[in-house]
């Protein structure tokens, strides 16, 4: 009688998917900085939570600094902006703050004026 060893591929595939999911979360979330809360208080945490739960509506890049601006919508006329930069292979928060504008285009123009582009 011949015995064969069979490996169930479902758990291995599930583990791989979970690991990929964790990597994706790690790549899209920035390590929080202290400036945001010191300067903008609880609103900085609201912006972080919005981005963590909903993701960014837009990500703009400042070619001069290499920083990214991530935008989320907090309320109908209140937007959250998080500025991040890569440091040692990790995205680190520079600051997070609210921006009161009625339209997303106004927020984009605000960031364009500070050197951030799509």
In short:
This protein is 41% helix and 28% strand.
What would your notes on this structure say?
The protein contains 4 helices and 4 strands; from the N terminus they run αααββββα. It is α+β, with helices and mostly antiparallel strands. The chain has a domain at 31-112. Strands 1-2-3-4 form a 4-stranded antiparallel β-sheet, sandwiched between helices. The longest helix is centred in the N-terminal third of the chain and has 20 residues, at 9-28.
Distance between the termini: 65 Å
What is the number of E strands? 4
Helix content: 40-55%
Structural class: alpha+beta
Quote the average pLDDT.
82
Q: Indicate the radius of gyration in whole angstroms.
A: 20 Å
Oligomer: single chain
Uncertain residue ranges: 21-28
Shape: globular
In what order do the strands lie side by side in the largest sheet? 1-2-3-4
What is the succession of H and E elements?
HHHEEEEH
Q: Give the helix tally.
A: 4
Strand content: 25-35%
Please describe the biggest sheet, giving its number of strands, its sense, and whether it closes into a barrel.
4 strands, antiparallel
Topology, element by element:
Blueprint lengths: L8 H20 L6 H6 L1 H13 L3 E4 L6 E8 L2 E10 L2 E11 L3 H9 L6
Brief descriptors of the model:
4 strands, 4 helices, single chain, 41% helix, 4-stranded antiparallel sheet, alpha+beta, 118 residues, globular
